[in-house]
Amino acid sequence: MEIWINPACSKCRAAVSLLDAEGAEYTVRRYLEEVPGEDEIREVLARLGLEPWDITRTQEAAAKELGIGRWPRDAEARDRWIAALAEHPKLIQRPIITADDGTAVVGRTEEAVREALSRQR
C-alpha cells in the first residue's frame, strides 16, 4: 500500500495516524516532492475509477490561474486535465491510498482509509 501525502495537510496526517494505529504496512510518498507523471496519474485514476476533474483541487491558486473551473469535463479535455495535475501536483486531491489489490481511494475520511485497509487483508 502506498499513500500520497502532503505533510502540511491535516487529512493526510489523520490518514497516516489511522494506518499506524491499525498496524498497516505502507509506503509514504510525498507527491509534491516525488511528482507523479501523466502516465502514473492515468493509472491512479483508473484504480480510483475517477476522472481527473474528480481529484482536482479547483480552489488552489494554480487552478484559478489556469482557469480550470471553466475547462470542459469531457473525454476531449481529459489529457489537458491530466497534464495540469502532473505540472501542478498541488492540484491533486489528497491523500490518495493505493491498495495492493489494484484499487485506490481518496482517503479524506476515516471510512475511506478503513476501506483501503480492508482491501489489504
UniProtKB/TrEMBL annotation:
Keywords: Oxidoreductase. Pfam families: ArsC. Belongs to the ArsC family. It comes from the Bacteria. The keyword Oxidoreductase applies. This is Arsenate reductase family protein. Gene3D superfamilies: Glutaredoxin. The lineage of its organism: Bacteria, Bacillati, Actinomycetota, Actinomycetes, Kitasatosporales. The keyword Oxidoreductase applies.
